[in-house]
Amino acid sequence: MIVGVLGAGLMGKEAATDLVKSPQVEKVIIGDLDVGQTEMFAQKLQNPKLEVRHLDANDDESIRSLIKECDVVVNALFYTFNQRVAELAIELGVNAVDLGGHIGGATDYILNLDEKAKAAGVTLIPDLGVAPGMINILAGHGAKKLDKVSSIKLYVGGIPVEPEGIFKYNLVFSLDGVFDHYTDKSHVIRNGEMHEVDSLSEIEPIHFDGFDELEAFHTAGGTSTLGHTFAGIDTLEYKTIRYKGHAEKFKLLVDLGLTNKETMVNAGGNVVSAREVLREVLTPQLRLGDKKDAVLLRVIVEGFEGETEKSYMYELVTTKDELSGTTAMARATANTISVVAQMVGNGTITSHGVYPPELVVPGDLYMREMANRGVEIKEYVKSEQM
């Protein structure tokens, strides 16, 4: 199988690193606008399977020239490119997966390409990061074991192992993404009906061994396609994990309008975006640098098997790989999209069309593949006869 990787940012590089290790992958073509830094990555990796290409994501012909040589494409570009990449993959008859983009409706747009993908005989799976992504796969895996699903609760956080600074947080992905998740409304299902709630709200304590006091609160985008897939269940909610006090401090910035894309201010005669200023101020303070990060995850799926009330809980605690220097978030995210891309490319996933991860990715195999990469997801089962 030949796999194309669009984008040589952190996640693209980590996905390519995993892909070239697979005996089923014949070649990996990685494309990026900055060929120089991508060539440096390739020289460091020293794997003959890896080929570097120039890629201008704003140029359809540039994207086409890379995609057409591949059996499956890993789209690791910023989510604003997801729609166009999906359309071009269908046009060229090539399978594709992406890291998600429910903020701004990108994933919804791609899901609406289902009939076109079926007609082209290709498989598209969006939302293959951690949240959404890993949590979707695990939620779907637990749900398939139940006759009736009543509740799905999701908790995920990428945090520093040693908290520092005002927010006790370091960036593990785009700060613009953080602003979106904290500013937009969160969607939850309560008593079988979809509701909007404020992000950064309904703070609750949560415990993971080895970590100081933690909290969890609503943020936008995490439930992604799960709200449609499990429409009508009693409860669905997604909360982000941070160290205690984080939400209250960030909510002040949100309430002041500083994270809102529409907030413009006159500063010394120049009209500037408050959000852009905030981003430039916070980014240097929040960079992870050489610090050690962790990904904490808990997925709880409750329901019934016959008359027995049952719950399946999936839990992950993974930290930065000190040997390779790979962050915990990169390990969890890039391995997820690589594993699923290979499932599509090797015929494990054969359904043509556009599918959310919870409907089409085999959970048992996914968990085994992630464990083989040092990302171990544990399953806990509880049952009670009614």
From TrEMBL:
By its UniProt entry, which InterPro entries does this protein fall under? AASS (IPR051168), NAD(P)-bd_dom_sf (IPR036291), Sacchrp_dh-like_C (IPR032095), Sacchrp_dh_NADP-bd (IPR005097)
One MF term in the entry's GO annotations: oxidoreductase activity
Question: Which residues belong to any copy of the Saccharopine dehydrogenase-like C-terminal domain?
Answer: 129-374
Q: In what residue span(s) does the Saccharopine dehydrogenase NADP binding domain sit? A: 3-125
Domain of life where this protein originates: Bacteria
- Presence of the UniProt keyword Oxidoreductase in the record: yes
Fetch the Pfam families from UniProt.
Sacchrp_dh_C (PF16653), Sacchrp_dh_NADP (PF03435)
What are the protein's UniProt keywords?
Oxidoreductase
Q: What is this protein called?
A: Saccharopine dehydrogenase
Q: Which organism does this record belong to?
A: Tetzosporium hominis
